[in-house]
Amino acid sequence: MTTYEATFQHCELIRRKINELGARLVESQAQLYTAIDRDYRDGRLDMDDLALIYERARGLGPGFTTKWDEHMSVPAGQVQYHWRNRVKTRPNAPGGTHWHGPYPFEKDTVTPHRGQAVVYVLYDAAAHPIYVGSTKAFRDRMRTHRRDGKPLRSWLAYPCDSREAAYLLESRLLNERRPSMNRTGGGAAA
Fold first, then answer.
1. Could you give the 3-state DSSP secondary structure of residue 121?
2. What's the whole-model pTM score?
3. DSSP states of 18-74 as a string?
4. What residues in the chain have per-residue pLDDT under 70?
5. What distance in Å separates the CA atoms of residue 7 and residue 13, rounded to the nearest whole number?
6. Integer Cα distance of 4 and 141 in angstroms
7. CA angle 60, 65, 70 (to 5 degrees)
8. Residue partners of 104: CB distance under 8 A and separation at least 6
9. What is the pLDDT of residues 54-84, one digit of tens each?
10. Percent of the chain with pLDDT strictly greater than 70
């Protein structure tokens, strides 16, 4: 057994250091979340800021949600909801003017959230506009277009403040782009 004694001692030393570092991490997280919560309550951070901070905190390892809830006035679940439905779905173009991406969607494709009025343009493999439409359920509408056989390969979607604004933009884009698959466009009916 003495042939392994040095290795056992080395392993025990490493385990003690890991435990010490774990305890320091817990203390540091408590200080961090307390400072973040104070800034949030004092108005220096808003929910968008909290959502971005929460996503960064995910990298601190397992159990971070429990630690968050112990020290924050806004529960992790509320922040997660905000992240999924507002921050993560913000327009992904520079300046936040629109969303765009390939279709089928890639794993991390950012798209408009359900309820966001948008006007969208669908493009074929040659990057020609084939369809212009508007919706408040973008992902559902894209699945319908795919099921209907539209040969789409990419898309662009513009946020609109209301359905009325979306109808006006849709009309303008139909006239400008003359997509081949719209009934009012330059080609065959959809």
1. strand
2. 0.55
3. HHHHHHHHHHHHHHHHHHHHHHHHTTSS-HHHHHHHHHHHGGG-TTHHHHHHHH-SS
4. 1, 85-89, 93-95, 184-190
5. 10
6. 65
7. 110
8. 146
9. 888 887 878 888 889 999 999 998 888 877 7
10. 89
